[in-house]
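Hi V.,

Quick status before I head out on leave. The structure for the redesign project is tokenized and pasted below; the design run finished overnight.
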């Protein structure tokens, strides 16, 4: 359990008494944490507070003293009658609370009268220091417009999809009047847009994303708790499949349906679950800090050695459903994994990739025996990939933009001749699509790298600059301020794309920026050992 540290020196009165008050809410422990059944208290039903105030004196004349939570503390209800991550907050301004003092309370109401607290036991060994920056204000943003919609709703437009809290200075309404604030992302036909799962959208104001210090990939993930990136935090997650975390974190699906294995089958998935290996490695490359590899080593090896089901050839079990190149623009809205590149192909390319990464990670950590084992596995898997998917000429069974890019960037080809064949095939595929993007989450981060490394940088530039849908410039032409989850989350007529939920603040498709930094800007990171890596500009003649 993470504890928080705050500097409260400026709040202390040097003369007179000081009072410590803390608002306690259900939070992760007892809130509704998923869209399934609205079940509460998945991790516990007893709210509590553990707090200590440390006071030291600058002159050193007096010893530091500590004030901590104990049986002398009191509790009572407050104006915040409900406060949850999923369902928001209810604030009752008509509620009159009694003063909380060490003396007798002034009210006889059971709701407002301070009550004695119950002291419960707690394992202090579970406390860990914060591992992420504190949530704090960084900027104040004013609305660009406030107007009334046709249905009579007041729309506050901040002109930017952003993360923050509303600050309301004054509300002049009669007692009992209810004011509701809904935070969302876009408008549709002059009103709050509603996608099929019932989540609301509004005028470019997002005030919920990741505010509870939970790393999520987008606003909708905060609502549904699905994220691949948080697999890095394995020590905080529910053990599942040999300590490999589940599809959503925390595992609210299993908690909501503990006796129903069919509700959401426990199915490992490539790419997203491969983050167990790829994220620690990326952090190491960016920081040169070996500790992150040491800390995550067990979860990294658990995923490769025991977490994923394999076929007889060592590649993925072909019967396992894969999201593959998720949200390929040709995939049906309700079937994001049903794109043009077979999920098994994507999964197997990633398996070779993560095995190669494990080889390098073991070498960095000096685990030579493991490095040799994974190196041998990588060579065997690469041969199995060729036997299953590739001809000696370099032609692949899949000739989609994603399949060809994966083969190039993940170094799955045996010779320069094969690389040239695949590069030329990729170039033709891009031209056939008239430079529109036809990649999903697996192919988008690497397609421009693949084009550049095979001698076609002019096509990469052309893809980046084209404005028709699907493309990187299409959302910009629609006036967006953040990247969408789907290439066409909003259609040209301003309507939200039909289908299952979509996000208007999602980083995945914006991963092309890596290519722009490295290839266009010529900016690349140092090697972890401090030596400069090769840096070059991709120049295209006029």
């Amino acid at each position: 359990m993470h504890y928080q540290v705050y500097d409260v020196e400026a709040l202390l009165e040097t003369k007179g008494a000081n009072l410590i008050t803390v608002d306690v809410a259900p939070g992760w422990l007892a809130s509704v944490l998923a869209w399934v059944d609205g079940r509460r208290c998945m991790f516990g039903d007893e709210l509590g507070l553990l707090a200590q105030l440390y006071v030291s004196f600058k002159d050193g004349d007096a010893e530091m003293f500590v004030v901590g939570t104990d049986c002398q503390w009191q509790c009572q209800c407050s104006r915040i009658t409900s406060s949850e991550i999923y369902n928001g907050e209810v604030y009752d301004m008509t509620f009159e609370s009694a003063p909380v003092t060490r003396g007798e309370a002034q009210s006889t109401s059971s709701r407002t009268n301070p009550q004695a607290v119950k002291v419960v036991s707690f394992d202090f060994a579970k406390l860990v220091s914060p591992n992420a920056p504190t949530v704090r204000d960084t900027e104040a943003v004013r609305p660009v417009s406030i107007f009334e919609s046709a249905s009579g709703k007041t729309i506050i437009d901040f002109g930017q999809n952003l993360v923050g809290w509303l600050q309301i200075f004054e509300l002049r309404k009669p007692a009992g009047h209810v004011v509701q604030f809904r935070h969302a992302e876009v408008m549709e036909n002059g009103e709050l847009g509603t996608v099929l799962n019932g989540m609301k959208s509004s005028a470019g104001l997002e005030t919920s994303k990741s505010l509870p210090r939970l790393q999520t990939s987008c606003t909708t993930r905060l609502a549904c708790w699905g994220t691949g990136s948080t697999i890095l935090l394995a020590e905080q997650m529910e053990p599942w499949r040999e300590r490999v975390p589940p599809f959503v974190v925390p595992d609210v699906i299993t908690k909501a349906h503990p006796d129903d294995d069919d509700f959401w089958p426990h199915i490992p998935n490539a790419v997203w679950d491969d983050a167990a290996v790829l994220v620690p490695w990326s952090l190491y490359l960016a920081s040169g800090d070996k500790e992150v590899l040491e800390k995550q080593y067990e979860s990294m090896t658990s995923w490769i050695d025991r977490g994923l089901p394999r076929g007889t050839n060592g590649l993925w079990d072909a019967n396992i459903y894969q999201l593959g190149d998720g949200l390929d623009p040709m995939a049906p809205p309700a079937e994001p994994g049903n794109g043009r590149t077979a999920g098994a192909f994507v999964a197997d390319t990633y398996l070779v990739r993560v095995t190669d990464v494990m080889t390098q990670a073991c070498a960095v950590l000096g685990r030579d025996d493991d490095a040799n084992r994974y190196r041998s596995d990588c060579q065997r898997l690469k041969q199995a990939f060729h036997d299953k998917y590739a001809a000696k000429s370099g032609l692949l069974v899949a000739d989609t933009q994603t399949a060809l890019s994966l083969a190039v960037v993940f170094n799955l080809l045996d010779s320069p001749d094969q690389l040239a064949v695949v590069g030329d095939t990729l170039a033709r595929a891009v031209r056939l699509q008239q430079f529109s993007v036809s990649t999903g989450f697996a192919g988008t981060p690497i397609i421009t790298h693949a084009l550049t490394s095979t001698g076609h940088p002019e096509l990469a530039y052309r893809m980046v600059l084209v404005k028709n849908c699907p493309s990187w410039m299409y959302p910009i032409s629609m006036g967006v301020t953040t990247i969408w989850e789907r290439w066409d989350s909003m259609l040209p007529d301003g309507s939200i794309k039909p289908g299952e939920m979509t996000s208007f603040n999602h980083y995945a498709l914006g991963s092309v920026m890596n290519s722009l930094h490295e290839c266009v800007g010529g900016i690349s990171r140092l090697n972890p050992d401090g030596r400069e890596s090769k840096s070059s500009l991709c120049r295209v003649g006029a």
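Above is the designed sequence. The radius of gyration is 27 Å.

G. will cover questions while I'm gone.

Best,
W.
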